[in-house]
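Sorry, explain these tokens?

***
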Amino acid sequence: MSKDLFNYYLWAMLVPISILVWFFEHQTGSLPVTSLLVYCLIYRPILDSYRLIQKGVIQKKDIWKMFVVFGHIKWFKELYLDE
């Protein structure tokens, strides 16, 4: 696994999901659910978009496609499997 792919996994999944788990275990009210929605609907599409732009898979003008219902599934291989 390349360093770039490891960093992507770290910042896309490991760190945010650890924080979300902590929120759900230690916080009450709407903070855990709000955090989960921000992660799923804003953070991940932006992070995935910039990874795909960096790899030359999409152009900057196509970032909006990541916000359309599960747009990242179309590029699953490029995001998670290709280095």
